[in-house]
Amino acid sequence: MARQKLDIKKHVMTGISYMIPIVVCGGILCALAKGFGGYDIGSAVEAGATPFTNLNPFSWIGFWWGVNKLGSIAMDFAVAVMTAGVAYSIAGRPGIVPGIVIGYCSSQSKAGFLGGLLMAFIIGSFVNWMKTWKLPKWCVGLMPVMFIPVISTVVCGMIFLCVFSIPLSFVMNVFQQWIISLNGGAKAVIGGVIGACMGFDMGGPINKTASMAANALGTDGINGPMAAKIIGGMTPPIGIFIATLLRKNRFSKVELDTAKTALPMGLCFITEGVLPFAAADPARVIPSSMIGSAVAGAIAVGMGCESVAGHGGIFVVPMMKNPLWFLIALVIGSVVTGVIYAFLKQPLDEQVEKEEEELDFDLDINIQ
Amino acid sequence: MKILAITACTAGIAHTYIAKEKLENAAKELGDHIKVETQGSIGVENELTPEDIREADVILISADIRVSKDRFTGKPVVEIPISMVMKSPKGVISKIHEKMGK
Predict the structure, then answer these.
(1) Alpha carbon distance A253, A188 (integer Å)
(2) Which segments constitute the PTS EIIC type-2 domain (chain A) (predicted)?
(3) What is the ipTM of this complex?
């Protein structure tokens, strides 16, 4: 049982580790494009026969529209890559094709990260089961190139569309509606709730659902939650960076280097920058980042910050309403996360001492 | 004893390399020979060669993500989460000694 639990974690982590670079790529490209081309750069070029028909990439606006498009395509594929990664971890190479197809399907159907993750396990088990099929010799060669990709994609894909897509998007929708319904109350409350959700799982299902809720409110012309979404996603990596400044001696050299990459990621609104820390020390990192993000979100929205842009991090701050309060909230929220984590973080010395104590574990040696 | 190890963590930028260092130091103290391959986000570094694998007594895979074991047919393989190496590198290696009866 413990073994199984470990395996599940390993599969999920494999998927996330494949997803991080594509999210970083998408996030930074969108941020740059919005910073140089304006926050509504996404609608600067009208689609013709293809989305690129009317594009003149040699004009200033056209160039940044192209960069923004590349970034948003990268973002669209994030869940697909994660799903393929998890399925690959379970079933090896044959998991990749159904993983990409169904993962993309999941993000398109609003089932998002959660749907992709669930389907990856179904795909993985299904492909593993297909591998045990006894087939006549002449068609063994067809198995990996034809039978597995076709059958696993159609079976798992239709399972998703028939069974999971509707309830999953329903659950996401209920959660989203709840956040939207908070909009009637004190502004700081909705800012705080969205902030906390953003800081909870750093790019996972809760984070993505909260940001979808903010996007939905944005299309209705309510732009406060969007500011909370951006700030809530920015403070965790910046906060961890601050924590390493406050308590340098509690972090190893490699952790200090990692924190230096977290700072620019935070400024570009890539919450995933904090994942190396969250994965290693979740019990201390997650509460610190949730509290910091909630504080930042509450201050920003409470003070009337609004953002029309949905992404872009620090680059879109000049285009926000009340940008000064946004920056103040960003600093306060990041410092809160930083101080809490610096306080909670275990000193390295204690970790070293522990080395000699924790010897009562077991491991299995298996001959391959 | 000749140990080969592979380290791989989720983000592939931090713990993979900390674990490598910890294993190397621990093995040195315990008088073992060790070579550690890292599978970080950048890809495989310090790759284990077929000769390394042929001569090795045991393969230690400490990873939070999937690591292929195809190369190690017929070899004793130990799989543990990377946190175990982070907490207790010497403990892990001595436990392997104990289990291998050497």
Answers:
(1) 38
(2) 8-354
(3) 0.71
Is B99's CB within 8 Å of A365's CB?
A: yes
Angle at A116 between CA A112 and CA A120, to 5 degrees: 175
Number of H helices, E strands in chain A: 16, 1
- Judged by CB atoms closer than 8 Å, whether chains meet at B78 and A363 is answered as yes
Residues of B that are catalytic:
9
Interface of B with A in 78-97 (CB under 8 A): 78-81, 83-84, 86-92, 94-96
The pTM of this model reads 0.74
pLDDT tens column, A302-360: 998 998 877 788 888 888 889 999 999 999 999 999 999 999 988 765 554 444 445 55
Give me the residues paired with residue A89 across strands: none
- Can you tell me whether residue B64 is helix, strand or coil? coil
Closest Cα in chain A, distance from residue B47 (Å):
19
In chain B, what are the domains?
Answer: 2-100 (3.40.50.2300)
Check CB contact of B11 with chain A, cutoff 8 Å.
yes
Token duo for residue B24: 């190397």
Reported as a single tens digit per residue, the pLDDT across A16-30 is 888 878 887 888 888
Do the chains contact at B14 and A280, CB–CB below 8 Å? yes
Contact map slice: B 29-48 vs A, CB within 8 A: 41
SS (H, E, C) A257-312: HHHHHHHHHHHCCCHHHHHHHHHHCHHHHHHHHHHHHHHHHHHHHHCCCECCCCCC
The token pair that represents A259 in the structure block: 């924190």
Which residues contact residue B45 at a Cβ distance below 8 angstroms, ignoring those fewer than 6 apart? B37, B38
**What are the tens digits of pLDDT across the range A147-166?**
999 999 999 999 999 998 88
H or E element: which one contains B4? strand B2-8
- Closest alpha carbon to A314 in A300, A305, A301, A327: A327
